[in-house]
Write a structure and sequence with these properties.
The protein is of the alpha/beta class and 137 residues long. The chain is built from four helices and five strands; from the N terminus they run βαβαβαβαβ. The longest helix has 14 residues. This is SOS-response cell division inhibitor.
Length: 137
């Protein structure tokens, strides 16, 4: 399995086989993390929770080998709901990975999510850019 992805460090500089839970605010796209997410998903049978992502995100995860039945997709109408849902998903300790699209967060919220990730031993990746809607024409 390890040889399938080549080098153990992805473009973001993460050791893709590390077992230590982490909180990461990411300014890159999901695609560069897919090998790491797939590897992490194989270690447990808990949820992979996606908050604020679009349908294409789910399809990317499934294409990377993550079972659709293990993906929990949570919508949020606004930034506050997505931040709250992210914190709750972390604190519930029912997910092995939480992926969130939150946009700009306050330093206080970043700290809260970092602590929730640490306490729950859950990997958390927060994407700062909100997925844009495809053009209508």
């Amino acid at each position: 399995m390890r040889n399938q992805f080549g080098n153990q460090f992805n473009d973001s500089g993460f050791d893709i086989w590390s077992a230590a839970p982490e909180f990461s605010a990411i300014q890159t796209d999901l695609e560069s993390l897919l090998p790491r997410l797939h590897a992490l998903s194989l270690r447990t049978h808990q949820w992979i929770t996606v908050i604020g992502g679009r349908r294409e995100i789910i399809e990317q995860l499934v294409a990377a080998g993550i079972s659709r039945t293990r993906i929990r997709w949570v919508h949020g109408r606004n930034q506050d709901e997505r931040e709250w849902a992210t914190e709750q998903a972390l604190l519930a300790s029912t997910s092995s990975i939480v992926l969130s699209w939150l946009g700009d967060m306050s330093p206080r919220m970043q700290q809260r999510l970092k602590m929730a990730s640490k306490v729950s031993q859950t990997h958390s990746f927060v994407f700062n850019d909100l997925p844009s809607l495809p053009p209508l024409h």
